[in-house]
User: Fold this.
Amino acid sequence: MISLHRLNGDEMTLNADLILTIEATPDTHIQTLDRRQFLVLESVDEVVAAVLEYRRLVASGGHLTALTA
Assistant:
């Protein structure tokens, strides 16, 4: 899951595995596999970086550390 901000500044959490497309239109527009659409404050590069960091964390098993603590 990644944390993003809606255009009004509210924080939201999105399952990174459900992202289908990310576009700059000029606002960042995210479409998910179930065709839901979100506009967020973060740039396309920031969303991609958050997804990559999330995937690195999962691949390393780091997400399990919080579960055992």
